[in-house]
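Each record in this resource describes a single protein on a pair of labelled lines. An example record follows, reproduced without changes.
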Amino acid sequence: MSIGYSTESHWLSLKEVVREEENQCLKDHYQESENLEAIWVVLDPQNAPTYLSITIGSETEEYLFSIDLTGATPVLEHEDGRILYIRTKGGEQDEFRI
């Protein structure tokens, strides 16, 4: 089992993730994908971007949740080290390319 870490506690619909992104390539390929879900993760919480760091007790407190990446495919790496994983709803493995 492969694990990633995210500020999201669960997988989101890919449509929802794409709406928030500025990446035109994602929008072109996946805008209408109803049966896909996605999540941005880091693979090592020690190497998480500083804005994802845990600041306990502050108003901007954020936690990193463990995310099971079984059946997911990495499709895009952000310059800050986060990786976008995509999977079919329910976690079935498939091939995804951008």
